[in-house]
Amino acid sequence: MKRLSMFQIILLCTFGALAIAGVLIFSLALGGGKSNTTGPVVIWGTLDKNTFAQSIQQLADGNPDFLQVSYEQKDPDTYIAELTNALASGQGPDLVLLSDEYAYSQSTRVTPIPYTSFSREQFGSVFADAGSPFLGIDGVIAIPFVIDPMVIYWNRDLLNSAGFAKEPLYWDELYGMAKTITKRTDTGSITRATIPFGQYKNYTNAKSILAMLMMQAGGTVTARNAEGDLISALGSPAGDASQASTAALRFYTEFADPSKEDYSWNGSLPNAREAFAAGTLAIYAGYASEKAMITRMNPNLSFSVAPMTQIRSSPKSVTAGRVYGLAIPRTSKNQSGAITVAYLLVGKDINTVFSKALGLPSARRDLLGEKAEGDLVLFNKQALIVRTWIDPDPDRTGQVFRGMIEDSVSGAILLPDAVQRADRQMSSIIGGQ
Length: 433
Fold this sequence. Notes:
The chain has helices at about 5-15, 50-60, 80-90, 120-125, 155-160, 175-180, 205-215, 240-255, 270-280, 290-295, 335-345, 350-360, 365-370, 375-385, 395-410, 415-430, and strands at about 40-45, 70-75, 95-100, 115, 140, 145-155, 185, 190, 220-225, 230, 285, 305, 320-325. By secondary structure, it is α+β, with helices and mostly antiparallel strands. Strand 7 and strand 8 form a beta hairpin. It starts with 5 loop residues before the first helix and ends with a helix. The model is unreliable at about 1-35 (pLDDT under 50).
């Protein structure tokens, strides 16, 4: 086997030192200065299997550490349930790709990297801010791998025909755009929509968008208090956080109010991404990874990708996004091999290979600042402004957001009251962990 350089040994200690049966990862470098094989390492995740397989094969040709590495793609809808069941039975993978939204709920099932081996400061200097949900109480839950930022997709034909040369830079531009672009029948049925804001059930990204609007307005969803405990941060009745959440909810639901001139969306319309691909929706806020899906759905659609729209008066730009990190299950039968593979995957050269192959930005700060090509030019810039929050239970918090949106649109509850109720529900979810 090839000899590890001192630089590699130092990096292994920095990135991957783990207290596994009292043995640190740099013990792999012992034994006459040669490394042992990593052994079989099975990775589970929801990212594209063909891209992973091709990239792993390419890397294995020049690096024997990847010879026994395999990747299994899982259905995003059942991934966490399947993973939970596998780990409960002592089975499952050696390495998992976790999105940041599941970092908190899955933290007890993985082996954290202690802060004595990889400090919070080191983490922050190496990885983009979006990876912060992977910072657990006892250590790093997962090593950030790639980022999937949210961007704006806009239909060139629909905007141009309505007299708009490009996407909205600021959210307040949508009021005028919706009045011009949206088309309705005499009975009020929407035949052409501007933006899918105001509903939950037919807009998959509703939770992410509303949370992002809250963060753009200066608030957030959850935070840690002085003792390090997770708390709901939707706000108190008189707090700035509550005002930010209420303002975001008011704006989001604006476009689902039939009494408003900018009425543009309702629950009877198709799924938002399908409507955009069909050419009946002008503007769609979605993840970078959705571009390939949209193109497959309608290869003839004339659309462009742009930076996420912002609040005009805000001093900083913010977008939402998912971060995928590499975590080691406590049940892994090859934890030393898994951490070695994880370290290699986030190494600069190899991470570049995967970033380009997946079409998603690296989670490494240094790579986000390097010259890129194609869509990665935009995606990398957006990745740097992705802000995330710790989600205690994605399924249950999704229902909180759904209730907040749907009750506000129906008029069943006033906006400030909807936010306060959601705040109490979030606190209950956190307290039940």
